[in-house]
Amino acid sequence: MKVLSLMHSNKILLVAAREYKATVMTKAFIVGAIIFPIVIWSAAILIPTLVSSETPKLEGTVAIMDGTGVVADAFKKALDPETIKAQLALLGTEGAKEQAEATLQQMGIDKNSPARAVAQRQIERFSTQPIPDLKYIDLTPEEENEDQLRQDVLSGKLIAWIHIDEHALDPLVPHPVSMLTSNHMHADNSDRLASVLKQTITNERFTQQGMSLQQVVLMLIPPQIDTMKAKAEGNVESNEIADIFVPFGFMMLLWISTFTGGQYLLTSTVEEKQNKIIEVILSGTSPMQLMTGKILGQGAVSLTMLLIYAAMAVGGLQKFNYGYLIEPSKLLLVAPYFFMAFFFVACMMASVGSAVNEMREAQALMMPVMMVVMLPLLAWMPIVRGPNDPFATIASFIPPMTPFVMALRLGTNQPIPAWQIATTLLIGFAGVFVFLWMTGKIFRIGILMSGKAPNFMTLLRWVRMA
Amino acid sequence: MDAAIEIRGVTKTFGEKTAVDGLDLVVPTGSLCGFLGPNGAGKSTTIRMIMSIYFPDKGEISVLGKKSAIESKDRIGYLPEERGIYRKMKVGDFLTYMARLKGVDSAAARKRAAEWLDRVALPDVFKKKCEELSKGMQQKVQIVASIIHDPELIILDEPFSGLDPVNSMLLQRLILQMNEEGKTIIFSTHVLFQAEQICNRIFLINRGKKVLDDTMEGIRERFDPRTILLRTRGQRNGFDPRTVAGVRKVEERKGDLEVYLDEDADPVEMMRTMMNMAELEKIELRKPSLEDVFVRLVEDARISDSGEVELVDHSH
Question: Cβ separation of A283 and B51 shorter than 8 Å?
Fold first, then answer.
């Protein structure tokens, strides 16, 4: 008996392996489901890195007509190599780091915040940009010959000509500054000139009023209000984005991977029926072995996709400093629900695939079950907002919906009672067994049936019949 | 007598329709059986029940000494009537897969696939996709797939349908060879001529019931038409077989005379007598053809329509 069951499981594995290979080792799958997403993902990850590292050195001669008499000097000082070197040196010191940290904390930007990543990247960019090497020509209003200057900028004798209006320090004067640069200049460099110019003028406005811009900026930071949610193990910070999108992401991953595998299962079953290969295979296996093998094979396809996509999602989040949003313990908790979800979808697809004669007929037959499974997808917002509301709680106890609703609920950072996790797992997997049993009956009859497309009631009759 | 398949009182209904009705059938080990019957007689249903693809409503089936074919699938080769192929799979991979499904280990399966492709005159297709093959070639691949695991019992449902004469001959030789090797073979067919040529046992079912179950010799004897066929050279010169004692009736058909004999007449003696009476161009004892038997049994059932078919020798 032991040898017998071993032989049978070997047949199931053979069927599963063939099913997996026939699905995954196709150009369509490799390109569509693996290479294409990876290319898009790599592009999203790599392009920003590649682009920012290419800024050429800012060098050449700048002609300035300064009507205010104070801005030009401040501007030159801000771009002076010595000043920049001193700033860079300061950035490296512990004191500066502490001060920066204090400022960031004050702004409510904690270690895990995406804003921290943005700030970090700006500092990196500042320190990796080449130190500018500029010469200046100071112009008096009389010397400012527009045609000549334009010519010089065009010919490359000047890299920029800056005109500062004499009332530039008056905040109410519109367009107080103009800058003409060569169109060969790298956008990063012209941005840098413009931003230093803006900063200098703003700074001077405050200096003229006897104030310090730096202080004003700090004073303008709104006080941070800590939103906390009471939790048994202590208070936990709430994060609106994470609360909403992480659960949605969990469910979508579950949904996409299980339904892709399920779709392949449906297609391959219908194809086997259409090609009349079923009975040939049944000469070597029992219908149950064939069905189990097919479900396991496509389950492996789903798992492959889930792993690839989840790795891409986690990797992407890490890269952009959102990694903390996903707790490994949660991923582990969601894992059994993935298998549950897959089996529900697979049973549905195997039943329908075995019963119909062509794909066209499959759609109508799937409607009743699809509507139930679709519910969590349509109602994800209320479930995420109130993961412990009666709606979400009850929905997670209704079998085909269980894994999808639970993925949503577990994705939120609100605690789900342990007894509910335990009972939904129990009820869910009990549901899986009932589904598998029913599917076995439908499959056995369905795969050898041809002719009129059965309806939902016919399937139920088959379950009772066999 | 050792039985490869034993069917006892098996009935199978689909809704209102009774496909197989109280069928008893014994396939002796080592026999080569033709399984005949008109369309819709219940042949495929019976075969599917033997293969445990369908399960009987009533009755018992034992296959190779087991209660169910599921327990001995690896010892059975089955070519279904509805046979397809994985179109996108390579021929070699498909055959290897089928062999492995039936318990052959991986290396041996590949080796056998290549050997068998040679044997059925399909070299160089091992690495081709199944869909690239012609229909006839695909049929041969399907046949190989059903016997690649060297089974002791081979069940072929309409194996000749769709084969051209050359490949039909090839399959016939193959079936005979395998039978000589000691394998039990049962095949259903419409082509009675083929069954007649190679089978040593015939089952005929009609409307789910068995109407004939005998060895080929038994059938020949039982359905002996007791008729002499003869043609005279030139004019008959007054020759009339009716004058011979023991002749029941004479009919003329396309210049040939069909001489029907009495029950107790000795055909050989009668032929000798007739050859002495006239100059004959040909004279032969008519043999029963399976086609005659088939048509007679099936037609009779249709006429009587009682469902009960008497297996008595009909006298003309």
Answer: yes
